[in-house]
Amino acid sequence: MLVLLAGIFVVHIATVIMLFVSTIANVWMVSSSNIGMASSGLWLLCNKTCEQLPVSSRDDASLKAVQAFMILSIIFSVIALVMFIVQLFTLEKGKRFYITGAIMLVCWMCILIGVSIYTARFAGRMPEFANSHHGYCFILAWICFCFSFIIGILYLVLRKK
């Protein structure tokens, strides 16, 4: 049981770190052109220098929604980690980690909404660049989506023995 708890804890910490990296780094889309490589993220467009992400007025609300949901997912994931540690030391034997699991599933839902909006509105669209493909931050966000779901379900069924 201790090994299972330690494993879940390590995967949860890895998920929090990957969420931070995927939200902060600007490598959601990568493309090449005759002037070199460029990458765009949730915040900046980086070619040789980084500048504010050029977004049309109709896509501005979508970008802000993606930014907000990714930040919310980080917040809920950290809260779930703290709640797990608190419940680990205060929960009676035989009880389940319901609160931690519920918070982690809210984190999972925030990641799902944020990455889905980005996929629908921004994936493959980098104006003035050719050969666009997804960057590592986009892939990390989907990995965090999977991990947060698995961790949330494990917290719901896990008993403290």
Automatic annotation (TrEMBL):
What is the name of the protein in this document?
Epithelial membrane protein 1
TM segment ranges:
7-29, 65-85, 97-118, 138-158
Q: State the membrane topology.
A: Multi-pass membrane protein
Do you know which InterPro entries this protein is assigned to?
PMP-22/EMP/MP20-like, PMP22/EMP/MP20/Claudin, PMP22_EMP_MP20
Q: Which GO terms describe its cellular component?
A: plasma membrane
The superkingdom of the source organism is Eukaryota
> What family, per the record?
Belongs to the PMP-22/EMP/MP20 family.
Question: Which region is the signal sequence?
Answer: none
Record's keyword terms, sorted: Glycoprotein, Membrane, Transmembrane, Transmembrane helix
- Enumerate the Pfam families for this protein: PMP22_Claudin
Its annotated compartments are: Membrane
